[in-house]
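Quick start: what a row looks like.
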Amino acid sequence: MGNVKDNCMLEVLNFQKAYEGVPAVKGISFQVNAGQILGVVGPNGAGKTTTMRALAAVIAPTVGSLRVAGFDVEQSPVEVKRCLAYVPDDPKLFPNLTIEEHLAFFAAAFRVQDADSKAAALLRSFELDTKRKVAAKDLSRGMRQKLAICCAYLYDPVALLFDEPLTGLDPMGIRMLKQSIVDRAANGAAVMVSSHLLAMVEDICTHILMISKGEQQFFGTVAELKNKFSQHGTTATLEQIFFMATDVQSSDRQLAELVITA
């Protein structure tokens, strides 16, 4: 790893991104330490995916500094990709490769030790072991999502980025993924999860990053967020806070305020 300070695995300082001069993200700053799970919430188009893609060295920042495990994303993109796994909302798999061929490819690319045993354990955990000979093009949406997660877990990255990871998963798959995220963090990984399912975010995340229209509305622990938006001794849910903090219609905002103070 690079020059890691205080177990900080993901560090973003004044990240800005513009597309053809139009700002998409306007000065976001946060960090995720080893063992922490950051939930990223915000309306569609807020800049959540743009931030994750920049951290994963998929796109370059317009302004700002981004580091993964001490490596600068712009200066050391190869090192960044060796210690980070990014699972987008629609993972791009090799359509003609089977499940086991995908895992073999990732094992070779990342020089995974004991790859066969690790792959077998992951396939059992995510209920894919009976489908190991099936090509990706013949898998259901949920199974493709599970395969992408297994590939991400195979090489034990120190940082994990999930963008809407529950898409297509059934209730059992959702439970398995949530527990696996908690377990990975407990073993020292830094995890970043973007999701519109606020109950899931509230359930597993230690920290929250709230974005609206490319602007950072809040970054801190879940307890700090609830304390900031509590009124008259009433503790708000993350869903209630979301509507209060993001740019919703005034009628919706008034409704949220009524709910939180009730």
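That is the whole record. The longest helix spans residues 171-186. The first strand starts at residue 8 and ends at 19.
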